[in-house]
Design brief:
Order of helices and strands: EHHHEHHHEHHHHH
CATH topology: Rhopdopsin 7-helix transmembrane proteins
Shape: globular
Number of domains: 1
Strand order of the largest sheet: 2-1-3
Structural class: mainly alpha
Number of strands: 3
CATH superfamily: Rhodopsin 7-helix transmembrane proteins
Radius of gyration: 21 Å
Strand content: under 5%
Mean pLDDT: 82
CATH architecture: Up-down Bundle
Number of helices: 11
Low-confidence stretches: 1-5
Helix content: over 70%
Length: 309
């Protein structure tokens, strides 16, 4: 079986999970803990928003979509890592590697776009409250979500199209827990300088630009809240701060991973592990813990379930 134009490599070896048994057990327990506690929590958030009539505002609509994206995102790399640790096998097929790369960037790009849509929603709600119901309609929200998924797909397919033709003729060891562009490109049996620059522009610069724009956006909103006569100042301020926390969680590791030269650094694996396997499950939970409405709605949902039983 051959892949690409001159490839002979049919599988890659993931060396991120150390052979130290204690570390492997720790990673397995950590991942299972997050899956069994926070993973169902994200599902609970989606069900609560869908079932509760009081949570039909655009903000909660975007939150449900963010939770859905995070659920999908957290299913891309952890299952394979857990399987490899349990089975003792550390390989991943060429096709499996390309598939991981596609979905990491597809879902990650879509999440970035959803965060931008949430920022737009908060801007209109705070700065133009009288026009909010007219501007941010259900059709507008659905259009922004579809555009987010489409934007993530375009971002990802550009990456994959550039990687597939690369020849892999020898080294096949990846010093990470999963496959991603920064590791794969270094194994290609060709000069990849131009490709590294294109990948940097597509992932690194895009992350930096979105990060700076979102910080400027929320900074301006916080300033307006502080100096303006806005109804519900405390709630609006809390919402903006929550969004800023998520922006740092989402963009900080991405900027670190994709904006430094395509070389190995000691901290890379730690950042990559938390960025792809832990942080995605935390995003909606942070919104929930800082939002009184959805906490009350979740509590009511559980009480209704208990009453039925």
């Amino acid at each position: 079986m051959e892949n690409g134009s001159h490839s002979v490599v049919t599988e890659f070896v993931l060396q991120g999970s150390s052979q130290v048994l204690g570390l492997q057990l720790f990673l397995s327990v950590l991942l299972l803990l997050f899956y069994f506690i926070i993973f169902p929590g994200n599902i609970c958030i989606i069900v609560t928003i869908l079932k509760n009539p009081s949570l039909k505002s655009p903000m909660f609509f975007f939150l449900a979509n963010l939770a859905l994206l995070d659920i999908f995102y957290s299913c891309v790399t952890p299952p394979k890592l857990i399987l490899n640790i349990v089975s003792g096998c550390r390989t991943i097929s060429y096709l499996g590697c390309i598939t991981q790369i596609f979905f990491i960037h597809f879902l990650g790009g879509a999440e970035m776009c959803v965060l931008i849509a949430m920022a737009i929603d908060r801007y209109v709600a705070i700065c133009h409250p009288l026009h909010y119901a007219i501007v941010v309609t259900r059709v507008t929200c659905c259009t922004m979500v579809v555009a987010s998924w489409l934007g993530g797909f375009i971002h990802s397919i550009i990456q994959v199209i550039r990687i597939i033709p690369l020849p892999f003729c020898g080294p096949n060891k990846l010093d990470n827990f999963f496959c991603d562009i920064t590791q794969i490109i270094r194994l290609a049996c060709t000069n990849t300088y131009t490709l590294e620059f294109l990948m940097f522009a597509n992932s690194g610069l895009m992350s930096i630009v979105c990060f700076i724009l979102l910080l400027m956006f929320y900074g301006a909103l916080l300033l307006k809240i502080r100096i303006g006569s806005i109804i519900g100042k405390s709630k609006a301020s809390s919402t903006c701060i929550t969004h800023i926390i998520i922006v740092f969680i989402m963009f900080g590791p991405a900027i670190y991973i994709y904006c430094h030269p395509f070389q190995d650094y000691p901290f890379d694996k730690v950042v990559a592990f938390f960025h792809t396997m832990i942080f995605p499950l935390l995003n909606p939970m942070i919104y929930t813990l800082r939002n009184k409405e959805i906490k009350i709605a979740i509590w009511r949902l559980f009480k209704n379930i208990e009453c039925r039983h």
